[in-house]
Design a protein that fits this description.
elongated, 25 helices, about 650 residues, 3 domains
Length: about 650
């Protein structure tokens, strides 16, 4: 008997430590990379130097957003094509991703150098900060190709099965930056210019290490031919990586709005504009260290949640959720205590300032991060919902805090309370995001309890029929919802004496993956476009991909062994390389007929039937397009398209049987 996956048997605490610690280290290194410059600049130049780096930082974030779009897109494409056993296609995807990263990084570098003054103005640069920001920004802009290409390669290297190499290249760059910063700033007396040079050199080293890996790919081979960008693949990569782009760009939007509000209302206060921009930038980066630890714990736990949810081990799912929330709340509570008790010590790490600087720093830590404890619930909740396949809820939780709650709160509260209103916006956004996360969690826990109470195993008992065929044949049937396609397939299977595979896939996939039947039935052959927003930088491959890969594997196996009728599941595409014994059919009908069938056979309300039919057909089309890059209702995909209204259900089945020539 095959031994069960440790995700379903090992102690939860041990699993979380095993999976989360590498994630925490990787994310912490990434966060510290940005902070190192500020620490040494603060001591070597002063808080104005730190203010300048905060104004320039959004440019790096834009570069990161673009590079992650292509890097994460290419890594997802790599995983998908390897799952389909298409190494050549996978290599083309990675090659296109690398080429696009190179091209866009050079273009963005040129644009940034030309329009640097305008960018600085957009991101809230003041006249006092402009000289420092211009010096620092020009050098950082020259290094953008290195950091962007290196970042894209980092994502691809992780997907190739070498997360340690990816982490090593990041750590090497961070350590080198820590060594070079004091040398250029204090020894060579180069100030912010020296900090920028140290950063670019470190980024180049990470870039160089990742370039060396290109010749060592484990799963694919990269050559000059695959590096030629393919337009159709480029579109797919951008779609796969769009969530990472949006997530990073949301931070850019927040920083742009926040910096401009700080300048506007800071000028009206005793602190001026420069102190608030500097301090809030530092506060946000320190809070990012807290968030990196919490994200690391939750991301590491993602496969544990996903496996046990799929295996219907809801007790372990709840235990795991409870443990992660407990650990995250402890971490955020410790951070809260530090922010409230020693803010002066924390800000002093980044150099010294006058009395107003220290006063505003203490206010910022104590006010802006007043409810940072809430992050211990909101962040893990978002990743939890992604892990169990509720990607729409995950996307809402991920984006609502930054885009909806924080920006809105800053604009409204600053107009009432001035500079303090911007600080009040932090806890306001944290609280609203916390409430939303709690509501989602409570509802999901009720759902888990309900599923646990109703859980029962339904054995796969498809009747084995004696085939009337004297040849091997596989019939795939794609169908519009309400067209009668499934029933036509059932009749064809009965007339030919072969098996019908539709709901039967649910049992087969459940047996081989550990995913529950209810989960599979709810999530297969459907894809909401908003769910794409939850794939990306912090997330591994989701359960939807697992379902597709496993069903594709089963479909190929069945098609090679027996004659059968297969309903939906992209079977026509999965079996497209088999030419001789495959008949691909598409069943459609007009809306009135679909509505009648939906009311009669599915029990839908007549008024709502049309909306439901359109919704389900759209989900099927999205699913088909995502995995095949083809249009679901394109008649060129099929050998025969049948209007079930024209022939009727029985005659449609007879027509298919006649084509088989029994």
């Amino acid at each position: 008997m095959e031994k069960e996956n440790i995700l379903g048997t090992e102690k939860i605490g041990k699993l979380i430590r095993q999976f989360s610690i590498p994630c925490i280290i990787s994310l912490l290194v990434n966060s510290l990379y940005n902070i190192i410059d500020q620490i040494f600049i603060g001591w070597g130049v002063g808080y104005l130097g730190n203010g300048a780096t905060n104004v320039v930082f959004p440019l790096t974030m834009i570069g990161l957003a673009i590079s992650l779009m292509f890097g994460d897109g290419a890594s997802s494409y790599l995983s998908l094509k390897l799952g389909e056993k298409k190494k050549e296609e996978a290599a083309k995807g990675v090659g296109t991703g690398i080429s696009l990263s190179i091209i866009t990084s050079i273009i963005f570098c040129i644009i940034t150098l030309i329009f640097l003054p305008q960018f600085l103005t957009i991101f809230g640069c003041t006249d006092i900060l402009r000289e420092y920001a211009t010096i620092y920004g020009r050098i950082i802009s020259m290094g953008l190709p290195f950091v962007m290409i290196g970042t894209s390669l980092n994502s691809i290297i992780r997907a190739d099965g070498s997360p340690r190499y990816s982490m090593l290249s990041m750590v090497t760059g961070a350590v080198l930056n820590t060594i070079l910063d004091p040398i250029f700033i204090f020894v060579f007396k180069m100030g912010v210019e020296g900090a920028a040079i140290a950063t670019v050199i470190s980024q180049f080293v990470t870039f160089f290490l990742n370039i060396l890996y290109v010749k060592k790919f484990k799963t694919i081979e990269i050559n000059k031919q695959v590096l030629i960008p393919k337009f159709n693949i480029a579109r797919k990569l951008m779609m796969l990586g769009i969530s990472s782009f949006i997530t990073q760009m949301s931070f850019v939007v927040v920083m742009a709005v926040e910096n401009n509000l700080l300048v506007k209302y800071g000028t009206e206060s005793k602190y001026g504009s420069e102190i608030p921009i500097t301090v809030v930038g530092i506060v946000m980066k320190i809070s990012q260290i807290l968030n990196s630890i919490i994200i690391g714990v939750a991301v590491g736990t993602q496969p544990i949640w996903g496996y046990n949810y799929g295996a219907r081990k809801f007790g372990r799912v709840k235990e795991c959720l409870k443990t992660v929330l407990g650990v995250s709340l402890i971490i955020s509570t410790v951070a809260f205590i530090l922010f409230q008790t020693i803010p002066d010590k924390l800000i002093s790490i980044f150099g010294s300032g006058d009395a107003n600087y220290m006063e505003f720093a203490c206010l910022a830590f104590r006010t802006y991060l007043l409810l940072c404890i809430c992050n211990g619930v909101q962040i893990p909740s978002s990743i939890f919902f992604q892990a169990i396949g509720k990607s729409t809820k995950s996307a809402i939780l991920s984006l609502s805090r930054q885009i909806l709650f924080l920006i809105t709160s800053m604009i409204i509260l600053s107009s009432i309370f001035g500079i303090m209103g911007i600080l009040y916006a932090g806890p306001c956004a944290d609280f609203l995001a916390f409430i939303l996360a709690v509501v989602f969690l409570v509802l999901e826990l009720k759902n888990l309890n309900k599923q646990a109470d109703e859980d029962e195993d339904i054995m796969f008992n498809q009747m084995i029929l004696s085939s009337k065929l004297d040849k091997h044949i596989v019939i795939t049937i794609s169908r519009e919802y309400g067209s009668g396609g499934r029933y036509i397939g059932k009749l064809v299977a009965e007339k030919l004496g072969i098996k019908l595979y539709d709901k039967e896939f649910i049992s087969k996939v459940a047996e081989e993956t550990g995913l529950s039947k209810d989960y599979i039935e709810s999530n297969e052959q459907k894809r909401e476009k908003i769910s794409n927003l939850s794939n990306g930088y912090y997330f591994e491959a989701n359960n939807a991909d697992t379902l597709y890969f496993k069903e594709a594997e089963i479909i190929k196996d069945l098609a090679s062994k027996e004659s059968c009728v297969i309903i939906g599941r992209c079977a026509d595409f999965i079996l497209k390389d088999i030419k001789d014994n495959i008949i691909n059919v598409f069943i459609y009908s007009d809306m009135d007929s679909k509505i009648k069938r939906a009311v009669q056979y599915y029990g839908l309300d007549k008024e709502k039937a049309q909306k439901e039919i359109k919704r389900i057909n759209k989900l099927r089309a999205n699913h088909y397009k995502y995995y095949t890059e083809r249009e679901w209702n394109d008649n060129t995909n099929y050998d025969i398209c049948i209007n079930s209204d024209a022939l009727g259900i029985e005659k449609s089945a007879d027509l298919i049987c006649e084509i088989i020539d029994v």
